[in-house]
Write a structure and sequence with these properties.
144 residues, GMP Synthetase, Chain A, domain 3, 3-stranded antiparallel β-sheet, 3-stranded mixed β-sheet, 33% helix, 35% strand, elongated
């Protein structure tokens, strides 16, 4: 299985602007630029690669956790995950430093210890976590 997205960039780094599109149409000429990446905190001017990594990681991890919970006999009613990607400046430019996953689960009949165990398994084994293995990935979890 392969998935495809396309980036188009016009102009120099600081002043340039680009668009991102995906086969599914979820992204369709979605704007991105230096400003949307490093200046505009509210995200209303467009997206940035870190936001897309955060979305991919939140989605992948939450799906993996749902499967793990269900296989263990605890099908979740609801799982909500925020993924926070941290980027910082280092020698030679910017680097993604870490991802923090914040999970809230509504999972009937599960103990907190079992929930945390399965959160950690999903955090280590979802495909996006594996792809991001070069950076620190942390998680906090709570049950509703």
């Amino acid at each position: 299985m392969k998935r495809k997205s396309t980036a188009v960039w016009k102009g120099a780094g600081l002043e340039g602007q680009g668009t991102l599109s995906s086969t599914s149409g979820v992204l369709k000429n979605t704007p991105y630029s230096f400003s949307t990446r490093f200046v505009s905190e509210d995200g209303k001017a467009g997206t940035n690669p870190e936001e897309l990594i955060a979305a991919a990681h939140a989605g992948c991890f939450t799906m993996a956790l749902s499967f793990g919970l269900s296989e263990a006999g605890y099908p979740p009613s609801e799982l909500v995950t925020d993924a926070v990607v941290s980027i910082g400046k280092e020698d030679g430019g910017f680097a993604i430093k870490s991802v923090h996953l914040e999970i809230t689960g509504n999972v009937p009949h599960i103990s907190e210890a079992k929930f945390l165990e399965l959160v950690n398994v999903a955090k280590q084994n979802c495909p996006v976590s594996k792809a991001l293995a070069a950076i620190e990935i942390t998680a906090t979890a709570k049950l509703k």
